[in-house]
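Mods, move this if it's the wrong board.
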Amino acid sequence: MEEAKQLFKKLKIYSLLDLALIVPASYNDTTLSTTLEIGKVHTLEAKVIESSVYGGKLRVTFLLTQSGRRLSSTFFRVTPYHHKLFEAGSSHVIQGRLDEYKGYLQMPQPKSVKQIGKITPKYKTVLKESEIASLMEVYITEKNLFDEGLDSKEVATLMRVHFPKKMDEVYENGNFKPEIVEVLKFVEAYNHLRKLRGKRTDFPALRALNGSIEPFVSNLPFKLTKEQQSVIAQIQQDLSREDKAAKRMVVGDVGSGKTMVILASAMMALPHKSILMAPTSLLALQLYEEACKHLPKNVKIALVMQGKAEGTYKEADFIIGTHALLFKEDLPEASLVMVDEQHRFGTKQRQSLEALVSPGERKPHYLQFSATPIPRTQAMMESELLDVSLITTTPFEREVLTQTVGREDFPDLLNHIKEEIAQKHQVLIVYPLVEESSEVPYQSLDESREFWEERFENVYVTHGKDKQKEKVLLDFREKGNILLATTVVEVGISLPRLTLIVIVGAERLGLATLHQLRGRVGRNGLKSWCYLFSNNAENFRLEQFAQTTNGFDIAKLDLKFRDSGDILDGTIQSGQRFKWLDMAEDESVVAYAKMRIKNVEKS
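Not the wrong board. Structure tokens:
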């Protein structure tokens, strides 16, 4: 047992199904061949007619017992053992690839097989062949697989994969048969979901929260969308419990009205306090402005950022801030903690936030918000760790036309930019780099700056390393015509007059980033344009992107065009790369696996 534990550690596996999912890379089959097919590996009974040495190579002529045909073999790496083994008159079972030369059968360097009719799986792992084989023999049994909650078809399939009786049970044209792949997909999803579920821990809440959202909702100048209403209802359900602190992630596409959900949640917490942490002071400021505008006047709101605190946060009902909150020793106890764009905080910051607001056994209700849509399949996976809500629609139809353009379109593009500025609209141009680089075939921010500044007024420039970037963005929002930037503008500040964005070298960016950038324009229902500038305008990926407007569909496209492992490494805790499961296509497999886990738990 102890020895097996060490081997499991070497294989980096934690569950029986992890072991079952290490499937053979190939099989060695010593079943006698009944037909002869050129180019395939055969196992044949043969008798040595004669053998001779020629130029250091051993040549052996065999007579095939079954067909009576002759077959010649050449051995290149010859040892005394070969001479002794293939003496004239000796009988063998030989295995190798069958070739034909001028009508004569040949088999270069065949092996002499001791045991006939055996199929041996070959595993590619860090262990020795014998070690992995013995692990499979001991642990992969029907009983163990049934104990994991698999059904008889799944158990039979896994047993066949590891211990096949005939090759055509498992292989078709050299690959696993489609029905086997389907089972492997399911087992992979089922195993992963069970592991995630094991990681979830729930705590009792500090208190149940039942504040009314009515005073806030009835004063809004617009009606909340159906999806906003249903997510708010889910959160009300979460917060009304005392036995279990809420843990929910709300994922909304760019412009889906997440802020209203945040404000409604703060209302539910009243008369108790709530805290919201945002990754940048710009985002915090913007959320603060929205809160002051829409929340009832009797709700005390405070803003805490590095170097300044608006309003006295000790008395406030709703405290909004950046990670500067983490350095306030005297933060009041909050019954609800919310984090916006959580993935942009370091793990350390997230942990200190938790520590800061949880005095003991009981924890505050916890909500996190994200504007980076994730594929539904992934949302289903994540929901084993915490509850997930998706907001897939936007409050108003955004009219954003996306087009790929090249160098030859530049004069037209310039005219369009002039027209938009004439209407008091704003333009954003995103460059791939700040400084010139021989690696990238596009102009950088520094190189193009002069061109724009000579031709236009009120041109603002910022990038990731710019210490002043938040001030630049705020100044641009009020007074600017054109903003030149790198991708720093992707999340956050709302620029209501922005109607045209040009993304230079668009093919170099992931679709999710392009979608976030495109989300900067048309925020107020103004007709807008997103131009993808590329030296190679014939780009299938960009064309697909231009035709897709929903962030959740974009996330799915992004998966199709990249290795699904990339997208999962950051978000799924174990950084698991799936071998069989396709996150873009196999939503139904994951849904079925979730249902099966629930049923196993009930029984």
